[in-house]
C-alpha cells in the first residue's frame, strides 16, 4: 500500500498524511417543524419539512461554533468543503451555517442524495408513526423495514457507497492538493444517517449500532485526524459525551487509541476490536499436531 493511502477501515498509513483532511464533521439539521409537531408528517412531504425559528437560530449558532473550532490554532490556509442532504431542513441548515464562512474559505458544496434520511414512505398519521417507532425499537432499527419505506440496512448500503466515494476522493487528493492547506469536510445530514456513517467509517457491528443514540438537533460530531493517520471522535468529545451518544467503554477506548496512537491500547491489548474472537480455540503447543 502506498504511503498515505486510506485503508478499508478508515485508517491510513502513518508515513504520509499531508493530503488528508484534518477533520470530517457530521452535523444534524436544526429543529424542524416535525420535531416540534409530529402531525406535520401527515400534511408535508418529508423532504419538504422546514426548520422552525428555533432551528434557524440553532443552525446559525452551530456555524459560528464550527467556524471557531476550525479557525482557532489553524494555519492561515484553512478551507472547508460541504456535503448536504437534499432535504429542505438540511439545505436551510447549511444556508444558516454558511453565514459564518467567507466564500474564499469554501472549496465547494455538493448535494449528496445518499446522505438523505431514512425513508418513512409518504404521508403518515401520527398514530402510525408512533407505532412504527415503537416496533423499530423492539425489532431492531437496522433490520426493521418501515412500511412503504426503507430498512436501516438499506440506508447503510447507500451511505457505504458515499463513504467509499469520499475515501477515493481523499486518496486522489481532491481536497488537499496543496500540502500546506488545512481542509475540513462538513456533512450536513440527519440523525440516523450520521450514526450509519460512523458505523461504516469505524466498522462498528450491528449490535454496536443498535446501542447508539441520535444526536440532538444542530449537534455535531468531529472526526479529527491523528498523527498516526487515523480519524477519531476522542479529540473533541470527552467520555461523557461519547457515552451519551451510546458508545461502549471499549468503543471509547478504541477512539482514544485512534487519536493518540499505539501507546493507547484497549483492555484486549490492541487498537482494533474484532467481534467473534471469543469463538476460537485457545492457542496451544499442539495446534499443529496432525490427528
From TrEMBL:
CDD domains: HP_PGM_like
A GO MF term: catalytic activity
Pfam families named among the record's database cross-references: His_Phos_1
Superkingdom field: Eukaryota
Entry-linked InterPro entries: His_Pase_superF_clade-1, His_PPase_superfam, PG/BPGM_mutase_AS, PGM-Related
Matching PANTHER family: BROAD-RANGE ACID PHOSPHATASE DET1
Protein name: Phosphoglycerate mutase
Amino acid at each position: 500500500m502506498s504511503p498515505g493511502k486510506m485503508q478499508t477501515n478508515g485508517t491510513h498509513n502513518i508515513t504520509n498524511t499531508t493530503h488528508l483532511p484534518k477533520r470530517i464533521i457530521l452535523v444534524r439539521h436544526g429543529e424542524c417543524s416535525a420535531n416540534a409537531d409530529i402531525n406535520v408528517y401527515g400534511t408535508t412531504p418529508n423532504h419538504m419539512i422546514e426548520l422552525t425559528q428555533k432551528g434557524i437560530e440553532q443552525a446559525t449558532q452551530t456555524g459560528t461554533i464550527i467556524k471557531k473550532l476550525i479557525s482557532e490554532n489553524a494555519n492561515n490556509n484553512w478551507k472547508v468543503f460541504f456535503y448536504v442532504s437534499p432535504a429542505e431542513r438540511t439545505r436551510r441548515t447549511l444556508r444558516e451555517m454558511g453565514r459564518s464562512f467567507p466564500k474564499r474559505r469554501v472549496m465547494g458544496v455538493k448535494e449528496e442524495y445518499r446522505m438523505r434520511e431514512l425513508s418513512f414512505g409518504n404521508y403518515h398519521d401520527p398514530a402510525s408513526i408512533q407505532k412504527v417507532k415503537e416496533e423499530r425499537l423492539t425489532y431492531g432499527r437496522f433490520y426493521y423495514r418501515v412500511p412503504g419505506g426503507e430498512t436501516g440496512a438499506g440506508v447503510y448500503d447507500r451511505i457505504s457507497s458515499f463513504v467509499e466515494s469520499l475515501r477515493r476522493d481523499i486518496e486522489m487528493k481532491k481536497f488537499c492538493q496543496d500540502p500546506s492547506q488545512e481542509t475540513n469536510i462538513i456533512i450536513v445530514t440527519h440523525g440516523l444517517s450520521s450514526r450509519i456513517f460512523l458505523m461504516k467509517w469505524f466498522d462498528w457491528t450491528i449490535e454496536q449500532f443498535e446501542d447508539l443514540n441520535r444526536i440532538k438537533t444542530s449537534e455535531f460530531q468531529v472526526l479529527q485526524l491523528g498523527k498516526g493517520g487515523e480519524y477519531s471522535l476522542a479529540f473533541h468529545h470527552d467520555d461523557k459525551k461519547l457515552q451519551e451518544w451510546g458508545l461502549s467503554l471499549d468503543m471509547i477506548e478504541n477512539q482514544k487509541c485512534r487519536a493518540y496512537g499505539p501507546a493507547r491500547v484497549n483492555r484486549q491489548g490492541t487498537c482494533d476490536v474484532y467481534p467473534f474472537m471469543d469463538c476460537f480455540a485457545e492457542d496451544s503447543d499442539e495446534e499443529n499436531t496432525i490427528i
